[in-house]
Specification:
single chain, about 270 residues, alpha/beta, TIM Barrel, 9-stranded parallel β-sheet, globular
Length: about 270
Amino acid sequence: MTARTAYDKAKAEGRAALVGYLPAGFPTCDGAIEAAKTMVDAGCDVIEIGLPYTDPMMDGPVIQDAVHRALVGGVRVADVFRTVEAVAATGVPTLVMTYWNPVDHYGPGAFARDLASAGGSGLITPDLTPEEGGAWLEASDAHGLDRVFLVALSSTDERIEKITGVCRGFVYAASLMGVTGARSAVGTGAPRLVERTRAIIEKGGTFLPVGLGLGVGNGAQAAEVAAFADGVIVGSAFVRRLLDAPDLASGLAAVRALTGELAAGVRAGR
């Protein structure tokens, strides 16, 4: 199943899609799988599995901490694919979110092949530009994978047109400048960014959902974003629940509760 399928289903239900992120290998490989499955069971429509990387330049301290623990625990790319396979088996679109260097090192063609074999829907690449993405565009075409690039508050209309022109599945709109992390308020420029992105996509004669991420941490914020975006993307808030938990069972309960709150939020926002 593609991410677009999940977005379309949510739209047909009169709501935004809920997209949840967790890094593979945190708190353990099996623990990450259990947590992601819990998120699906409690209401996430799409799951992003982070590929732990040694230089997470865009990640805030919460995700950096989790990624560090996963790396110290010995997580490997094979574990990422195993996680994707287990989560995708639930029937929910499952994408990998990663910096480009690990994919380039693995080989774009081989990565696309193994991601597709695991049942993955696609790849989110926050630091890859369309100009440098030729190898991934080719590999994702060969294996029918979604490719999700980011637009930002600083993106010009011309830049948004170029980025959305190569996206497939959905477009990731970053609501804040800087690193990831839940905030007390959604960025004030977020609605305008989504509006600009939608207008440019529609000008091209197509429809592509726009999901908004970076900063959402509770149900009220989810409802706020759901009022103007096609998808609400949440990462650090989930990771924080696991970091703060004394054990996995407590962490899973906290993740389930947060997912339920966010799922109610995306339904209240329309």
